[in-house]
Amino acid sequence: MKRLLSCLRSVALVAAGLGIAAGAHAQTRLSINGLVADSVQTFSADALDAFSLKDVSVTARGNTAGAAGSFRMPITEIYLGASKYTGIGGGVVKGGSIGSALEITRISEESGRRIGLTLANFRIDYHRKLVLADVTPWGGKTVPEQAVYTYKVRRAMATEPDASGKLVLDERLVGLRLTPSMIERFTQALELDEISVAVIESTDFGELRQKIDIALRTPVSATPYVPQ
Length: 228
Fold this sequence. Notes:
Strand content: over 45%
Oligomer: single chain
Number of strands: 12
Structural class: alpha+beta
Radius of gyration: 18 Å
Low-confidence stretches: 1-5, 12-24
Order of helices and strands: HEEHEEEEEEEEEHHE
Number of domains: 1
Mean pLDDT: 87
Largest sheet: 12 strands, antiparallel
C-alpha cells in the first residue's frame, strides 16, 4: 500500500505541474519502473520501406517488446524541473526507458557478415526536443546519449481519460527524423550507399507515444542495457 501511495503521489505531482519556479535549474528524478508506463515507437510505412531497401532488420533487445515495426519500451524514470517551453505537462523535462534497446542490422553485400548498431537506454529530452540513446556500432565503442531523432509534439503530456474512462497521462511525438550525426552513424555501421543515405535523410521514421497509467505492475528492470 505504501508503494502504491508513493507511485500515485508521483503521478499526481506530474499531472499537477508541481508549481516549480521558472528560474530553477534543479531536476528531480522519479523512478517509475513500478508503474504501468510505456513508450511505444511505431515506425512509419516510409521507414519500413527505407529499411527494406537494404533488408535492414530491427530487433527488440533488453526489456523492449514487439516486432513488425512497433516496439514497446517500459518508461523507467522521469525528471521534473522548470522549463520555459510550452506544452510540457507537469514540468517533465526528461524521460527515460533505461534497459530498452533496438538492434538494427543487415547482411553486408561485401563481406557476407551481419553488420549494424544497437540503440539502447532511450531518453527524451524535452528541452532540446531530441530522442537520445546510447549508440554502439557492432565492434565499436558506445557513444552515450547520442542525439538520434528530432521530433514534433502532436499531443503534449496531459491527463486524459482512456477508453474505459480511467485517467492516464498521454503524449504523442511525431515526425521522428534522424539527426545529421545519427545519419552518419547509420551510414558507417550499415555500410549504406549514396541512394540509401539520401532516402534516410528524407524519411519520417514515425512516432513515439508515451502513456503513464495510475496503476502498479511488477517493477521492470531499469539496469542499463549493454550490448554483448
